[in-house]
Every structure is written in structure tokens, then in C-alpha cells.
Amino acid sequence: MEIWIKAHPILFSAFVLWTVIWKGLALWKSASLRQKYWFTAILILNTFGILEIIYLFIVARKYKVEVMVEN
Question: How far is it, in rounded angstroms, from Cα 67 to Cα 21?
């Protein structure tokens, strides 16, 4: 793996950037929806954005955040 990374640093950087962006979006959404199990799974598992994309586009769309304002 190390040899591949040294041979393809731009491609490796693209993979890292891709993963960080999707992971960040999914963690933000799961935290705002207070879904502890999803947050933990996304934080621990490294799936190159696959789990994060599934969560954002399939699971999280079913939930809404409601804001209660007290007068």
C-alpha cells in the first residue's frame, strides 16, 4: 500500500479529500438528528464515503429536525 501511495500521491490525496468531505457531512447530519449509533458507525468505519453517502441520501432523508421556540 505504501508503494502505491508513493507512486500515486495525487490520486491518494483525492481519495482522502473525498472521504473527509463525505464523512464530515454525514457526521454533521447524524449529530444534528441526534442519531448516536449512526454517528459512531460513521466515525469508526472507513468505507471511502460509501456508508456516508448511503446515510445522507437514504437514511437521513427520512428524518427532520424540529425547532421549538418558547414565547
Answer: 26
